[in-house]
Every structure is written in C-alpha cells, then in structure tokens.
Design brief:
alpha+beta, BirA Bifunctional Protein, domain 2, seven-stranded mixed β-sheet, two-stranded antiparallel sheet, 12 helices, rod-shaped, binds phenylalanine
Length: 344
C-alpha cells in the first residue's frame, strides 16, 4: 500500500509539472492523453486496487478518485487559460493589422469602359449646362417612331431592324431618340439634355455589329437655336472627349425623318495627319447624325415650332469607345471577359 501511495504522489507531481510546462493547447492535449486517457497513467493505477485489503481499499480508493478528479479540474482550468491566452495573442496581432494597407496580391475591380466613357461624356455636357435625361428600353412605337415623324408605313422603319415585342405597340427601342418627345413633354423650353443608353437592333453579331449597343443623344430646344450651335457643340465635344485641340468637323447632308435639315457630322481623324487604318486613309471619321428638330416632332412634344427651334444629335457610344481605345471587336465590350476589362 505504501508503494501505491508513493506512486500516486509521484504521478500527481509529474502531472502538475507537465501541466505547468504545457504552453500550447496541443501540448496540453498530449498531457491529457498521457495521464487522463483511457490507457493513461491514472487509469493504470485502478487495477492495482484489487490486490489491496478492504481497509486499504477504503483509504486508497478515495485517494485515487481524488487524484483523478483534481487532475481533471486542473486540466480544464489550464485549458481555459490557454484558450484565453491564444485569443489575446490573436487580438494583439489584429491590432497591428492595417485594413487600409495596399496588398499587391489582391485584385480589385475597375469600372467598365461603358461606365467610364458615360461618366466622361456626361461631365463634358454637364459642364456646358446640359442635364441628364432618361428613357425606357422597352418603348412604345409612338416614342420610338411616330413621335419622331416616322409614320406606320414610313420606309424609315426598315432602316433600323426593330425587335417587335409580343405586347402590342411595344418595341425594344432602336435609338435613344425615343427620349426626345418624352423630354419635351416633361420640360419647358429652353432646355438642353443628353441621354445615354442601350438600344437594340435585330442584326447578326460580328466584329462591328451586335443586337445591343449603346448610343447617346443630345437635344437642345430654345428660341434661337441654329445649326451653327450644333456644329460648335460637336467640335467642342470631340476636342474634350479625344483630349485633342484643333480637331476639325465637316457636315454632309443626311436623312433622318425627325430632323430638317439633317446632317451626318464627321470629325478629322484624331489619330493621324495624313491617313491611317482607323480613318481608312480618308482623314475623316463618321460619328454622328444630327440636325434641327423637325417641326412635327416639336408639335408632338407640345412645343410651338413657330416660336422655338432645336437641334438634336445621336452618337454611337459603342463606336466612340471602340475608336478612342482602339478596340476592333464589339464583342470584347459585351462579353464581360475579365482579361480584357482589366486593361482599363
Ligand atoms: N437616332 C439616329 C440613329 O440612331 C441618330 C440621330 C439622332 C440623328 C438625333 C439625328 C438626330 O441613327
């Protein structure tokens, strides 16, 4: 019995020491297995009881239980202390962690070219006193055609391959010109607005066509609006958008039922002085349709054409972006490929 008492004491001492020396939860777990495990040192003492007399059992039995109980308590206390310590260490590390610091390995997103260009265009026109107008992409035939002087049987309806919808009199807008009469009905002249947005045409997709692309439209109505205002505005816009001074413009007659006279306005090539592949060696780039708002359109908008005049212009925003950033395939702008978009 004496031997057993000594053994209990020794195990107890060794255990206390081992607990003290455990500095991590992993260490502590090894100590627990060594002493408190199913085949651990304390468990191995239990079978020795049966060789003792009843009196001895009465003394050693409770001593062994006491050893086991206090070893378990010590273990739990130590475990709690180590968890608290690990938490504190983590907190200390977090305190030094600067969430604003730059990490070269993290990739960040960027604004799509459409968003960048739209913001740039809107800022240019806002600085000229314009405001931003908006219109729906699912549009009535009235705003997309009729109000723009394009009657039911007007051949101009075939100029733009329209997506007609199963809903009567509704189409996917083929042009941002649908905002013209919408804007006139909402505002009193004088006013100047631009509107950028998606338009849809039933066309096969290739490098320069897609069934969806973007346009932007300008509309100015006032008492003395003339073609020279339109041309001056276009030149100023080109210079600001392409960040180039002394760009020239030229105007040719163009037919759009909602303007009279109608013009196609070209810009001198901003990329060369004597011909390049972008301007197809012509030194001119066709970009915009425009003209003076047709009196019928003003009437549809509730504006008296004998008192007011206006100009309107329409750009292919998609084409403008492709030109500015030398993008040779429209699909690159529309398919959301990360490798392409990351360049801008
Ligand atoms: N909406 C015309 C188009 O899509 C462009 C345009 C707009 C022409 C405004 C004249 C005035 O081709």
């Amino acid at each position: 019995m004496k031997q057993l008492t000594l053994k209990i004491e020794r195990i107890d001492q060794a255990y206390q020491q081992a607990i003290k020396d455990s500095t991590t939860l992993e260490n502590l777990e090894l100590v627990r297995i060594q002493f408190l495990g199913r085949k651990g040192e304390i468990a191995q003492l239990m079978p020795l009881l049966k060789d003792l007399s009843t009196d001895e059992k009465r003394i050693i039995g409770p001593a062994l239980n006491q050893l086991k109980q206090s070893a378990e308590d010590t273990y739990l206390l130590k475990k709690e202390a180590l968890i608290a310590q690990a938490f504190e260490q983590q907190e200390a590390r977090n305190k030094d962690f600067d969430i604003t610091s730059y990490s070269p390995l993290k990739s960040t997103g960027s604004l799509h070219l459409y968003t960048q260009a739209t913001e740039k265009i809107e800022n240019i026109f806002l600085s000229m006193g314009y405001s931003i107008a908006d219109g729906p992409e699912v549009e009535t035939e009235f705003y997309n055609f009729e109000s723009l002087n394009i009657g039911k049987n007007h051949p101009a309806r075939d100029m733009q391959d329209t997506f007609f919808l199963n809903i009567p009199n509704m189409v996917l807008r083929t042009q941002t010109s649908n905002v013209q009469v919408r804007t006139m009905q909402k505002r009193k002249p004088p006013f100047a607005v631009i509107c950028t947005g998606k338009v849809y045409r039933n066309e096969a997709t290739d490098a320069s066509h897609d069934y969806m692309f973007r346009q932007f439209e300008g509309l100015v109505v006032g008492e003395t609006i003339s073609l020279s205002n339109l041309l001056a505005t276009m030149r100023l816009f080109f210079e600001k958008f392409f960040e180039k001074k002394n760009l020239k413009i030229r105007a040719r007659p163009g037919y759009f039922p909602f303007v009279e006279p109608g013009l196609e306005i070209d810009m001198s090539c901003p990329f060369c002085s004597n011909g390049c592949s972008t301007c197809k060696q012509s030194c001119w780039i066709e970009l915009v349709g425009g003209g003076l708002v047709h009196p019928n359109v003003l009437k549809h908008g509730g504006i008296d054409p004998t008192r007011y005049s206006g100009f309107a212009f329409g750009f292919g925003l998609t084409r403008l972006i492709m030109l500015k950033y030398s993008i040779n395939d429209i699909r690159l702008l529309h398919n959301g490929q990360k490798e392409f978009l990351e360049q801008f």
